[in-house]
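We modelled the chain as a single entity of 186 amino acids. Its sequence is:
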Amino acid sequence: MWQTFTPFPFPLFLFLLISISTFHSITANDLVRQTCKKCAQRDPNLSYNFCVTSLQAAPKSHSADDLRELGIISIKLLGRNLTNSRSCIKELLKNKLDPFIRSCLHDCFDLYSDAIPATEQAIDDYKSKHYDDANIDVSSVMDASTTCEDGFKEKEGVVSPLTKSNNDTFQLSAISLSIINMLRLN
């Protein structure tokens, strides 16, 4: 009679596998929360809750092992936000609009169009550990969101249809900049 030998019982193996993956997920979530706490402490314009929610929404953040990985995730989130915002602006421009608002939207479209390659360059600079250059790239994106929003304020009574998009871009830029600066100082 053949005796089957199982050196490691399957239920125990399954339990260990689940435990390890859960532990890694908890550790990654702690990394996100700790990073966002430091970011929000360093920048009063940055919302801790926005930071945590944004980073945790990126699937790769759940397996991030260190600050450097979170940094690249944050810059990629910024790039996706820019692309989505630019698409929204394009859709808004298809509507019949007040000439001033149309002009502002065209300006924002141009600003965001220029910001997309700046984000791509930031990713390249970041990966090459050229943190000063990545800082400049991301700062230009942050400026684009502020300039876009400020354009609508030039005429009294006009409400920007892009306030949320501009604020999200600003916040995502602030997260990326904060992480870049933490790495730069280490």
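As a brief sanity check on the tokenised model: Helices lie at 10-42, 48-57, 67-92, 99-127, 131-152, 163-185. Confidence is low (pLDDT under 50) at residues 19-26.
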